[in-house]
Amino acid sequence: MSFAPKFFTTAESLVDSLDKRLLVLLRDGRKIIGVLRSYDQFANLVLQDSLERVYVGDAYGDLERGVFIIRGENVVLLGEIDEEAEDALPLRQLPFQDILEMQREESEKKARRDKLRFQLLHKQGFSVDFADNDF
Predict the structure, then answer these.
(1) Are 63 and 52 spatial neighbours (Cβ–Cβ below 8 Å)?
(2) How much is the pTM?
(3) What is the DSSP letter of 101?
(4) Sm domain location, by residue (predicted)?
(5) I need a surface site. Which of 1, 36, 41, 82 has the fewest CB within 10 A?
(6) DSSP three-state, residue 52
(7) Residues 73, 103: one domain?
């Protein structure tokens, strides 16, 4: 008697998500929201009426993307959106350009904080190999 191993892919579980609104977190950090229309055995996704959402603090901005094809290897996480829970969130929507500006400012602020922290660590004798010239 021989037992053949059974292989299950994550793509098989996507059948229940067809025609539902999903949030997809991509490997580069982007968040795409759209209606799942199709997928394949590699978990490549086709989203319709999609948008890219950027969060900064208690605000977010959306950029419409239309039909969006995502290669499966770039998907970190995906999940169905609960419309009622989403509406209840205390977030405010801002124009996308305003959100990008806020994101840039937040990124610059973080970079300045990190630079100070790395300098402090270096003074204490720690090596910070991923910083420019280790200060």
Answers:
(1) yes
(2) 0.76
(3) H
(4) 9-84
(5) 1
(6) strand
(7) no
